[in-house]
Design goal:
Strand order of the largest sheet: 4-3-12-11-10-9
Distance between the termini: 27 Å
Helix content: 10-25%
Number of helices: 8
CATH class: Alpha Beta
Shape: globular
Number of domains: 1
Low-confidence stretches: 1-5
Number of strands: 16
Largest sheet: 6 strands, mixed
């Protein structure tokens, strides 16, 4: 993305995490993976449907860059009160093609169609000639506590802007892209990412996680094993409209060669990282996870034989652990990066006070020296 967030990330605050992160501690540490955002923030005050205030956006993840090559993939649903399009295709083919989108609940359709149209524009030949428009994978979480969600402010132009600007390297976090208007544990939430590097025999692999986090009750918030939600009981949101529960979308990327059935096992391990932060899969929370590998099978010249390679199942424990660790840290990164935001009808969600968070962790002996 070529930018650095102004606030320190969770690890820089002295929050202890296990495992070794990649260069950027981001999903983009997986070679070939690109991330792009468009953030839309407009107007203040009373909600007028179709006019604002607007606190939303779109995030895109390109598994194999801007190519039309597929990536082995699988998904896991902890709680199904949400949406991720294209999963029937992922289930039957074990592959995902083209960019993955994440946005707000009411914008899934326009983002799906915009990704498809972008793929048609960029890939008039090749594997995406028919699947590009109808079956992109697009997921959502609900930002209607801060955003004029039914005003349908995300447009094809916003999606194409995110796709065209998608980059490797540093990934912005917090109030950006699809995560702009999100909340978690009754603090401001949003976009977050992390990565882990593991070695299996002589091979070095990277696992990256990206989260759009919009879930959790305050009393459940746990950071590095510390019951932070029981300590930080103030700074509750100001809601002048009826409150609605949220969701979390997690995308896991790896360059380890894995079969779709093995990628489903990685997607399941997202739940462990989620639980470490206090996530429970509460009712009306859509908790949906997608995992993909950038190592695709090869085919013969006639397309009549496909050859897969994979890490043996008995060697997957390090990848399971990396998935849990990267998910946990990505969620906390989203939490500490997010800024206080006021939205529709002056609804306000506060940022977690990082100085008090550090003090609580220090009290429990869980803050590393900084």
């Amino acid at each position: 993305m070529g930018q650095t967030a102004a606030k320190p990330r969770a690890r820089e605050l002295g929050i202890p995490f296990t495992g070794t992160p990649g260069t950027y501690n981001a999903i983009t540490d997986v070679p070939g993976v690109l991330v792009g955002y468009t953030t839309i923030i407009q107007d203040n005050g009373r909600l007028v449907r179709g006019k604002g205030p607007v606190r939303t956006g779109v995030t895109v993840i390109l598994p194999r860059g801007r190519s039309d090559e597929g990536a082995p993939a699988a998904y896991y649903i902890l709680n199904g009160d949400g949406e991720m399009t294209g999963l029937l295709y992922v289930e039957d083919y074990g592959m995902v093609y083209g960019p993955i989108g994440i946005t707000n609940t009411s914008s899934v359709g326009v983002v799906r169609d915009a990704i498809g149209a972008w793929c048609v524009e960029h890939h008039t030949t090749g594997q995406l000639f028919d699947f590009s428009f109808g079956l992109p994978v697009v997921a959502e979480t609900y930002d209607g506590m801060l955003n004029d969600i039914n005003g349908l402010h995300v447009t094809q132009q916003h999606v194409w802007q995110a796709l065209d600007s998608a980059r490797s390297g540093v990934v912005l976090e917090g109030n950006v892209g699809g995560g702009t208007g999100m909340s978690m544990f009754h603090f401001k939430g949003g976009s977050g990412t992390s990565s882990r590097v593991v070695v299996i025999d002589t091979a070095r692999y990277t696992v990256g996680a990206f989260v759009q986090a919009n879930f959790g009750a305050r009393k459940d918030l746990t950071v590095a094993g510390v019951p932070v939600g029981h300590e930080l009981t103030d700074l509750l949101p100001v809601f002048n409209t009826k409150e609605k529960d949220g969701s979390i979308i997690v995308v896991i990327a790896t360059d380890a060669p894995l079969l779709p059935s093995q990628l489903k096992q990685l997607a399941k391990r997202v739940t462990i990282g989620l639980a470490r932060t206090g996530g429970l899969g509460r009712n009306s929370s859509g908790d949906i996870f997608l995992a993909f590998s950038t190592r695709a099978p090869s085919a013969n010249a006639k397309g009549t034989l496909e050859t897969w390679s994979s890490v043996p199942k008995e060697q997957l424990d390090k990848l399971y652990q990396a998935t849990a660790e990267a998910t946990e840290e990505a969620i906390i990164n989203a939490l500490v990066a997010a800024e206080t935001m006021k939205g529709i009808n002056d609804n306000t969600i506060h940022a977690v006070p990082t100085d008090r968070l550090q003090a609580i962790l220090r009290k429990y002996g869980r803050l590393t020296a900084k």
